[in-house]
C-alpha cells in the first residue's frame, strides 16, 4: 500500500529469471549530505582531497548522475580534461542537466579534441545556461575554428569559410566590453586567428583579393601575434609588396 496517496503497487512474478536491467538515475534526493565532506575540503583549499571525497561518494552511488558529475566537475577544475570528459559523458548523453554539467562537458570535449561533440554540447548549453552565455560563445567559437582548420587541411574551402563565419558571429556577440577583462586576451587571439584563417580559406577557394585582405587584417590586429610571421611569409609568396603595412587601407 502506498500510504501517501492510497494507491497500490501490483507485481507480476515471472517463472523464468532475467538478468537485472541496468539502472541509473540523475539525482538521488536525500543523499546531498554525502557531498558535505568534499565541499568542506574545497572551501578549505584542498581540491585533491575534495576529489578523493567525491570519488568515495560515487563509489557508494555508482548509478547516480549527480555523484558522477561532481567527480567530473572536480577533475575539470584540476585540469584533468580527459578524465573529466569520461566522467561527464555518460549522463550528458542521456540528457541530464544540472547547474553546470553540460557546459563543462562541452568544454572538456573541446579540450580533448572532440570538436563535433563540443559544438553540439555547447549549443545545447547556450539554451540552458543564459547566465554563462559569454563563456559558452567563446568556447563554441574556438570549437568552430578548429572544425574550420580541419576543413582547410582537407581542402574543403567553402565548408571552412562557413564554419569560420559562424565562429566570427559568436565572437562578435561577446566582443569587448561585453567580456570580462580576464577573458579579453583569449577573445583577441581567437578573433585574430579567425580573420587570418578566413584569408587562408578564401585563397584556397580562389578569391585572391579577399584572401590577401584577410591576412593583412589579421596582421594589423596582432602584428606580433603567434601566426603573424607565417601570414607575412604567405603574403610575400603571393607577391604582395613588403611595405604594405605602412600603406593606408
Provide structural commentary.
This protein has 249 residues and is an all-alpha fold. It is built from eleven helices and no strands. The chain has helices at residues 36-43, 47-60, 65-77, 81-94, 101-111, 115-128, 133-153, 157-173, 184-204, 208-221, 228-237. Helix 3 (65-77) packs antiparallel against helix 4 and helix 4 packs across helix 5 (101-111). The radius of gyration is 25 Å and the shape is elongated. The termini are far apart. The model has no long low-confidence stretch (mean pLDDT 92).
Task: Describe the structure in brief.
This protein has 249 residues and is mostly helical.
Helix proportion range: 55-70%
Q: Which consecutive residue ranges, at least 5 long each, have pLDDT under 50?
A: none
Cα shape:
elongated
Total beta-strand segments = 0
Based on CA atoms alone, the radius of gyration comes out at: 25 Å
Given the structure, what is the number of helices?
Answer: 11
| Cα-to-Cα separation, first versus last residue | 82 Å
Structural class: mainly alpha
Q: How would a textbook summarize the main sheet? A: none
Strand content: under 5%
Return the string of H and E elements: HHHHHHHHHHH
Give the averaged pLDDT, no decimals.
92
Amino acid at each position: 500500500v502506498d500510504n501517501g496517496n492510497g494507491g497500490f503497487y501490483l507485481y507480476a512474478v515471472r517463472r523464468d529469471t532475467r538478468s537485472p536491467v541496468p539502472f541509473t538515475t540523475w539525482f538521488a534526493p536525500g543523499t546531498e549530505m554525502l557531498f558535505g565532506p568534499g565541499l568542506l575540503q574545497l572551501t578549505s583549499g584542498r581540491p585533491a582531497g575534495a576529489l578523493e571525497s567525491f570519488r568515495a561518494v560515487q563509489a557508494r552511488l555508482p548509478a547516480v548522475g549527480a555523484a558522477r558529475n561532481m567527480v567530473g566537475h572536480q577533475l575539470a577544475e584540476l585540469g584533468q580534461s580527459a578524465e573529466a570528459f569520461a566522467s561527464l559523458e555518460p549522463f550528458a548523453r542521456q540528457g541530464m542537466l544540472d547547474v553546470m554539467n553540460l557546459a563543462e562537458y562541452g568544454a572538456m570535449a573541446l579540450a580533448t579534441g572532440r570538436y563535433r561533440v563540443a559544438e553540439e554540447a555547447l549549443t545545447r548549453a547556450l539554451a540552458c545556461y543564459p547566465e554563462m552565455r559569454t563563456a559558452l560563445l567563446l568556447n563554441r567559437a574556438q570549437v568552430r575554428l578548429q572544425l574550420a582548420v580541419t576543413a582547410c587541411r582537407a581542402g574543403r574551402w567553402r565548408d571552412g569559410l562557413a564554419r569560420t563565419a559562424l565562429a566570427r558571429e559568436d565572437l562578435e556577440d561577446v566582443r569587448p566590453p561585453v567580456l570580462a577583462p580576464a577573458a579579453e586576451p583569449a577573445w583577441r587571439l581567437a578573433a585574430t586567428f579567425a580573420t587570418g584563417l578566413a584569408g587562408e580559406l578564401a585563397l584556397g577557394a580562389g578569391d585572391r583579393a579577399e584572401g590577401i585582405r584577410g591576412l593583412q587584417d589579421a596582421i594589423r590586429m596582432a602584428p606580433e601575434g603567434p601566426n603573424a610571421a607565417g601570414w607575412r611569409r604567405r603574403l610575400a609568396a603571393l607577391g604582395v609588396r613588403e611595405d604594405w603595412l605602412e600603406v593606408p587601407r
